[in-house]
Amino acid sequence: xxxxxxxxxxxxxxxxxxxxxxxxxxxxxxxxxxxxxxxxxxxxxxxxxxxxxxxxxxxxxxxxxxxxxxxxxxxxxxxxxxxxxxxxxxxxxxxxxxxxxxxxxxxxxxxxxxxxxxxxxxxxxxxxxxxxxxxxxxxxxxxxxxxxxxxxxxxxxxxxxxxxxxxxxxxxxxxxxxxxxxxxxxxxxxxxxxxxxxxxxxxxxx
Length: 206
Description:
Oligomer: single chain
Shape: globular
Largest sheet: 5 strands, antiparallel
Strand content: 25-35%
Structural class: alpha+beta
Radius of gyration: 17 Å
Number of helices: 5
Order of helices and strands: EHHEEEEEHHEEEEEH
Helix content: 25-40%
């Protein structure tokens, strides 16, 4: 079980097979991604905090998802391509996953300009998105202020830390948190493991 502020749980799942499996195959792409993201959140909460049910989710004034009842648990979700990602912690956190594909050169330059961090385009994109999700506000096309100190990626305030993962070929994954220890690698959940949780989430939405 997670101890206060010492770790952040990071989970990913390839949902491609689930998309084509009943009863999920009848869902729109957007609804299916929402169901699978929340199912992965459910699995993450069970693994890290031993929760038996998925708490009600609402959105704050900045549009950041959070639990309706204050329970001291923070989370962040992301999806791109065939993957969903979830981060859970007892401190604020943000996660982003992006499938690597060709992007307009103008967009790439806009993302990377005025950034001090020397990293790849998609890695920087994920770090910025993860940091903005952590803070609950921010614009991707504006400088983030993320910097490197003692070989650690830090947020502008100096008290948050980020990390990039290349676990999945063709994807970039990043997490940002106030946790004192970031994971070495994300936990990979199989589509078979996610199936029952996805059914539960789908039933909750009906």
